[in-house]
Amino acid sequence: MAELTTQERLQPSLLDRLTDDEPGSRLESRDKRVMSMRQLRAAVLRDLEWLLNAACRPLDDEIHQYPLVARSVLNYGMPDLTGLAASGLSQGRVEQMVYAAIQAFEPRIVDHTLGVKAVARDEGNHLSFEIAGELCPLPMPEALFVRTQVDLETGRCEVREGASG
C-alpha cells in the first residue's frame, strides 16, 4: 500500500477491525489497520447495501414497546418490502424508511446532511432512489452520492455510487 499522509489515515469501522480476512496469518499488515478515503467510501457502500437488505422487526412486534431497544442493533435493517407493488407503495414512505435506517445505523454519514429522494419507478416492480450526504471522518467531511434500486418482488436493494445531477 502506498504511504498515506497523516490526514489520509482513517480508522476502519469496528466490524472491519473485528473481521479476520486472513485467519491463517498471525500478523496483521498495516493496510488492515488504516484505510484511505477510497476504502472508506467502498466500506460505506457495502454497509449501506447490507443495511438496506437486512429486515428489521415488523412494526407490530413487541420490540417497538421499548423505544431504545427498537433503535438498537436488535432491530437492524429496513421493514420488509418483499412482495409490495410499486403502484401501491408511497415513495415518501420508502424515503422515510430508508432515511430512518441510515440515520440509526450508519454513523459515518452526518445526520443533518443526509437526504433520501425517490427518483423514479422503473419498469416492472422496481423503485429507485438517491441517497446524499457527507461522510464524517477526521480530518474533513467528504460528499457521498448513492443510487439505489429496490426490487419489490424480492426485496433486494442494489447500492452503487453515483454522480449527483
Describe the structure concisely for a colleague.
The protein is α+β, with helices and mostly antiparallel strands and 165 residues long. The protein has helices at 14-18, 37-53, 67-70, 91-105; strands spanning 115-122, 126-135, 142-151, 157-161.
Order of helices and strands: HHHHEEEE
Measured as a percent range, the helix fraction is 10-25%
Low-confidence stretches: none
- Tally of separate helices: 4
How much of the polypeptide forms β-strand, as a percent range? Answer: 15-25%
SS-based structural class? alpha+beta
**Gyration radius over CA:** 18 Å
Distance between the amino and carboxyl termini:
33 Å
Average pLDDT score: 83
The major beta sheet can be summarized as: 4 strands, antiparallel
CATH topology annotation? Nuclear Transport Factor 2, Chain: A
Summary keywords:
four-stranded antiparallel sheet; Nuclear Transport Factor 2, Chain: A; alpha+beta; single chain; 4 strands; globular
Secondary structure elements and their pairing?
Elements: H1 14-18, H2 37-53, H3 67-70, H4 91-105, E1 115-122, E2 126-135, E3 142-151, E4 157-161
Explain what the structure shows.
The chain is of the alpha+beta class and about 160 residues long. It has one domain (about 5-15, about 30-55, about 80-160): Nuclear Transport Factor 2, Chain: A (Roll). It contains four helices and four strands. The chain is globular and about 50 Å long. The relative contact order is 0.15.
